[in-house]
Amino acid sequence: MSFLQFSEIVLDWALSIALVLLCLSLTLTIVRIWKGPTLPDRVLGLDVLTSSSIGLIAVIGIDTGFTLYVDIAIALGLVGFLATISFARFIMARGDTERSPVAIALSDEPDEVVLSEEPQP
Predict the structure, then answer these.
(1) What does the pLDDT profile of the chain (121 residues) look like in tens digits?
(2) What is d(CA 81, CA 88) in angstroms, rounded to the nearest whole number?
(3) pTM of whole model > 0.90?
(4) Tell me, what CATH number does 23's domain have?
(5) d(Cα 37, Cα 62) in Å, to the nearest integer?
(6) Looking at the domain assignment, is residue 75 inside a domain?
(7) How far is Cα 68 from Cα 88, in angstroms, rounded to an integer?
């Protein structure tokens, strides 16, 4: 077996594994977008979905050898970036008051503490 044959086998395996992992990533991201408790979580999910799609297009482009896929991936990256910026401006203008549990945990604002009148034994 020559080095060229070995490298083709390794590349085929790597592309197959990458396709499976990217499809799994796309599936889990769609679930996260569907369940996302707040609008910013959904926007972040859409950004991850765009990034995973770019990766999937790149892997398909490498597998087929068709270089037009690179142009498609670049265009999708630009559209994804502009969509994320637009959604962020929309959320800021809307004044989204919904906060995820992670945002509450990471905030510097103290939570309201309800103290009882009598000490508990």
Answers:
(1) 899 999 999 999 999 999 999 999 999 999 999 998 888 889 999 999 999 999 999 999 999 999 999 999 999 999 999 999 998 888 888 875 566 565 666 666 655 555 556 655 5
(2) 11
(3) no
(4) 1.10.287.3510
(5) 37
(6) yes
(7) 31
Number of helices followed by number of strands (H, E) in the chain: 4, 0
Burial of 47: CB neighbours in 10 Å, binned 0-12, 13-18, 19+: middle
CB 46 within 8 A of CB 84: yes
Q: Any idea what DSSP says for residue 3? A: H
Question: What value, to the nearest 5°, has the Cα angle with vertex 8 and ends 6 and 12?
Answer: 120
Is residue 112 included in any domain, yes or no? no
80 inside domain? yes
Token pair 């499976």 is found at 20
* Residue 21 maps to a domain: yes
Contact 57, 72 (CB under 8 A): yes
